[in-house]
Amino acid sequence: MELVLLVWQIVKLLKDGEQHKEGYMDKALELILQLPAIVQTVIVLAVYSLIKGGYITSKFIVKKKKNIGSISDHSECKNFPSLVVMMKDAMYKSSKIQTIKREDTIYDQVNIFENIFEDIFKILKSNYLTLYKNEKSIPIDGILNHIEVKYYLSILRNSQKSLKQLTIKFMKENHFLAKSEAEFRSYIIERSEDYQQALSEYLDYEYDSQNFAVSREKLYKSNMKCMDKINNKLEEFFYKVRDVTISNQKEITALESEIKPFV
User: Fold this and answer.
1) What b/e string do you get for 84-116 counting C-beta neighbours within 10 Å, with b at 16 or more?
2) Alpha carbon distances (Å) from 173 to 159, 164, 194
3) Tens of pLDDT along the chain (263 residues)?
């Protein structure tokens, strides 16, 4: 029953589209794309049959030109079935646009963060090893085998999950293209402070000074001395994710121009 209602909505949009605001075809495609591929194909074929039978006289498939007439005027043309392929292609491209917006962009940006986090991890790891060596007055050789060091590094590694969630939140906002260069620089500074705070709060919660030779206070002060290096990595991250946004937006614009005659 839901499928019948959905098909009726689509047909009504195509049939009465000229009476609606521009973009009615986009709404029809949005409805169709909610369904599995096999059902999409069935609907496309059904719409084709309705057009061929003259039940739909919309002009959305061919560009409007003088005296061209409606689609139903050409329903007996031997090349008319190619319109089905054109519609299917338009739906694929519309689906691709949504995938880029909702999945691909964030996926690529989060991958960049994970690579940058490895660099930040190395900075903080090196800092802690120096702190621990000095606190214990021991040589650096073999220090990675100490239980306290292993424990701290596991805490640091687990902080990645929390920072990744913060990254996803920032990337979903993704207003990079609307910002001037000065605004983007300010944005980087603000978000870098958010990362610093999130990491510091995570360590406050997980790092119990009673279990470590290095106190939390010493660790905090020492980590703060590393912030210039960390901020440089975060700046690199934000410029790279903006580049992803720019690249993907170009692809979206190209796809939109290809399906414009259908919308």
Assistant:
1) bebbeebbebbbebeebeeeebbebbbebbeeb
2) 22, 14, 15
3) 555 565 556 556 555 544 444 555 556 666 666 666 656 666 665 655 554 455 444 444 433 333 334 444 444 454 445 556 676 777 777 778 888 888 889 999 999 999 999 999 999 999 999 999 999 988 888 899 999 999 999 999 999 999 999 999 999 887 888 899 999 999 999 999 999 999 999 999 999 988 899 999 999 999 999 999 999 999 999 999 999 999 999 998 888 887 776 55
Query: How many DSSP H helices and E strands does the chain contain?
Result: 9, 0
The Cα 27–Cα 220 span in angstroms is 53
Sign of CA dihedral 174, 178, 181, 183: negative
- Residue 191's contacts (CB-CB under 8 Å, 6 or more residues apart) are 170, 234, 238
3-state helix, strand, coil split of the chain in percent (to 5) is 80, 0, 20
Distance CA 76, CA 200 (A): 70
Provide the terminal-to-terminal Cα distance of the chain, rounded to the nearest Å: 27
